[in-house]
Amino acid sequence: MREFLAFQELLVLSFFARPKNETKKGALCKGVFLATGPKNRPSAPKFFPGFQKFFTVPMGYTYTRDKDFASLGPVKISKYSKEKKTVLPSLATNNSQLKTPNQQSASAKASAGRPTTDNSQPITHNRQPTTHNSEPTTDSNKQQTKNHKHLRVIQMVDTLNPGGAERMAVNLANSLVGEVEASYLCCTREEGMLKEELEEEVGYLYLDKKHSLDLQAFWKLRTFVKNKKIDLVHAHGTSWFWGVLLKISGLKIKLVWHDHYGESEQLEQRDVKVLKLLSRYFDGIISVNKDLKAWAEKELKAREVTQLNNFIVPSEKKGSRLKLKGGATDFKIVCVANIRPQKDHLNLLAAFEKLQGEEISLHLIGADPGIAWSKKILEKVADMKKVYYYGGLPEVSGLLRQADLGILSSRSEGLPLVLLEYGMAGLPVVATEVGQCREVTGDAAILVPPGDAQALAEAIKKYYFDPERRKKDALALHNRIEKAYSREAVLPLFLKFYANLSGK
Description:
Layout: H1 2-13, E1 26-30, E2 32-33, E3 46-47, E4 54-58, E5 63-65, E6 70-72, E7 75-78, E8 81-84, H2 101-111, H3 138-144, E9 152-159, H4 164-175, E10 182-190, E11 203-206, H5 215-227, E12 232-236, H6 240-248, E13 254-259, H7 273-278, E14 284-287, H8 290-299, E15 305-307, E16 331-336, H9 345-353, E17 360-365, H10 372-382, E18 387-389, H11 397-400, E19 405-408, H12 417-424, E20 429-432, H13 437-441, E21 446-448, H14 453-464, H15 467-484, H16 487-502
Parallel strand pairs: 9-10, 9-12, 10-11, 12-13, 13-14, 14-15, 16-17, 16-19, 17-18, 19-20, 20-21
Antiparallel strand pairs: 1-4, 2-3, 5-6, 6-7, 7-8
């Protein structure tokens, strides 16, 4: 147990440490210092929340990492064990006894039998990654152009309940089968019905994480990633934190964060203090719209940021037996959205009330998170006529093919997958003009301002009374989605991004 706690201490302390092998006389650390115990072994670090003074960590406790262990000064942490290393020499007053990183590099080359420059000449420190040889060789070039076919990739997501980020993680895991050497998916916190959508060839890991620093669950993940020789971790949404911990623990992986943030109109309110601090561990960031990309480039420290479209993989296996309720002659409007404030079902219900007297029914599909907002919505639905609620479903294409119109009334979005699903199902679409909705639909849909129930009702009437326009716009949207948001169109871009990050 003592060794396990020591490993936990090292993980947390590493957030405040300097990069690998960097040596300074002192390193600035916010709110943390190291105390030494018996036999000069580090005891528990002391943390002071909100305490803003800076402490100086002596050079003797410079943080270093290796592929099999992490160490802090004289103590090595390896597989939950501690063993004492040779104690580093104390700081010398004579500057000649201290070697700079350049001098250390020169000494290492000399000891390996490689020619070096005269010690009296200055040595230029190369900040770019290099091979062991001073000149690139044919073999090293081959290693630099790593093909995605040899990658082993794991998608990491917190839950498998129906949602945009969760479905995208499943789509990627399934689509990478046959495109990379091995495809895996890790669900960290809560399993859900999307688990049923995973292909048999996708390796699966469930952690049952209890809290953010559940070290037992983390070690299960780390062991899996190491044993499966995974090259790249693709973290969706809030699962990025454990991706960072994997890198800090010493694993040689590439880390990609996929930002699905749905409130892209309120980015200034996003709480990202910890994200900013740890974003230096991201090798790449994938943003689902241009606003999120611009924000990441400005606020975060990843090596590469790109914008890639979401894509969908229509399924024919599930949902075909379900039937939409209501009359046979009803004009059926379907809304696929979890019952959350962002989706603004109140605005949709207010618009539907303005359509009373017409043969129109409204069909709501989406998970109930059990919050006060969803309770209020469902109570209102129960009192309305021709409004039906189906709960969360793992796959909806069968129901969409029975509908006449797809609708989305969100007050904010990233790149909503449901618009892609509506388009692939051949539905005309009415949506609020938020997030990436305009870029997805172009002129092949009717978009209205968010929060405007009257405008939403008028848009529905335009399609209800004009079947020719419904047919024309539905076909145009379907073709647009196939061209820019299908698996065939988008997956090659993901593979190219993976390969570029992995080609060191």
